[in-house]
Amino acid sequence: MILSWRRPSKLDPLKYKISYGAHKEFYDSQGALQRLPLPPVEVFVDSERTEYSIDSLFPFTSYQVNITAVPPDESPRPAAKMIVTTAMAGEQQ
């Protein structure tokens, strides 16, 4: 998954914080519902970047992704939030 964003017009960010996680539910071969929590991941990227690639994702899984511009004083800022669902195994988009 490739994330891309525009630099904020009214903020000169120090860096960007990207966090993502997921909770996958599926039925196993016996028909029992299985839950696989995927622990959250948090990365920071340089303020000059406006793109980030996330690899090794599970197929047919919904990921919650947040991107936050971190100001020089590192005060809390609201995140841009999105939910992205990966394709089924073997599919390409």
TrEMBL record:
<protein>
    <submittedName>
        <fullName>PTPRD</fullName>
    </submittedName>
</protein>
<feature type="domain" description="Fibronectin type-III">
    <location>
        <begin position="1"/>
        <end position="89"/>
    </location>
</feature>
<dbReference type="InterPro" id="IPR003961">
    <property type="entry name" value="FN3_dom"/>
</dbReference>
<dbReference type="InterPro" id="IPR013783">
    <property type="entry name" value="Ig-like_fold"/>
</dbReference>
<dbReference type="InterPro" id="IPR036116">
    <property type="entry name" value="FN3_sf"/>
</dbReference>
